[in-house]
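Deliverable D2.4 — example input (structure tokens):
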């Protein structure tokens, strides 16, 4: 009976699709996803290496991450307050977020085209100057999770089960807080590694170092609070009594935060997330 009731409640709260709720984010996410095709083609045809990786691997990672980011925001936008995305101030703000995302992609892809580093490029004054500007734009594009999270948190008319409502808001807000904490610290370092690797052992595909601390690992976890915490909320709302579901969401959010902080502290101490045994 609990599952039937939950499914009924969830179906009754369905809102318009991605393009109805947040058309700009949805369309931009789709276009970035489609742009993977030419980038993957460039990766297949251009075999130049930079620091042991194909020069086009970083643009591919950015395109995948930003596609998922925008489509997730577009999905959650159905629970924003009515009329919010149609307001002039929000349209200006969302346009600036997309501008920041496009600028990041052009910067990373341009560096790949020239076979140089986009991040931590201290040997090139121009790229180093752009790096600082891109840091500000990164905060702007990440702030969309904070804006959406607070707006959903304050919206009493989502129609969602309380635990799921709470988890979506918490996940979005934590994404901003944790990402800015990790990325801001990483930007002050000369690189994303803490220590000097000897063999170059890395995690396949992801590329995290398995020998020394790698700040990309906590950064990755931080950006996915917007997915992990809502999944916990979905499970809590479906499996637990209402009186226990919301406290469980708070507990999961605290646990996820603790994991990110522990991973961050370990990376700063020079410890890899997945060591070589």
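Example output (designed residues):
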């Amino acid at each position: 009976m609990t599952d039937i009731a939950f499914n009924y409640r969830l179906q009754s709260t369905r809102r318009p699709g991605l393009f109805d709720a947040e058309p700009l984010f949805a369309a931009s996410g789709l276009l970035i996803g489609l742009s993977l095709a030419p980038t993957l083609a460039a990766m297949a045809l251009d075999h130049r290496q930079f620091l042991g990786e194909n020069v086009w691997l970083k643009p591919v990672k950015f395109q995948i991450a930003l596609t998922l980011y925008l489509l997730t925001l577009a999905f959650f936008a159905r629970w924003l307050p009515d009329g919010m995305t149609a307001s002039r101030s929000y349209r200006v703000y969302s346009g600036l977020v997309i501008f920041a995302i496009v600028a990041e992609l052009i910067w990373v892809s341009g560096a790949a085209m020239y076979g140089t580093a986009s991040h931590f490029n201290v040997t090139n004054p121009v790229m180093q100057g752009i790096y600082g500007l891109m840091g500000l734009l990164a905060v702007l594009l990440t702030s969309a999770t904070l804006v959406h999270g607070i707006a959903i948190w304050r919206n009493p008319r989502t129609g969602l089960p309380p635990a799921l409502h709470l988890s979506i808001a918490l996940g979005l807000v934590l994404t901003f807080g944790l990402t800015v904490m990790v990325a801001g610290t990483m930007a002050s370092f000369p690189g994303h590694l803490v220590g000097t690797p000897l063999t170059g052992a890395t995690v396949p595909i992801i590329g995290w170092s398995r020998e020394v601390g790698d700040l990309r690992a906590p950064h990755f976890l931080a950006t996915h609070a917007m997915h992990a915490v809502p999944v916990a909320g979905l499970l809590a709302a479906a499996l637990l009594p209402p009186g226990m579901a919301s406290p469980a969401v708070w507990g999961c959010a605290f646990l996820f935060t603790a994991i990110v902080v522990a991973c961050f502290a370990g990376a700063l101490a020079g410890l890899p997330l997945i060591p070589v045994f």
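The radius of gyration is 20 Å.
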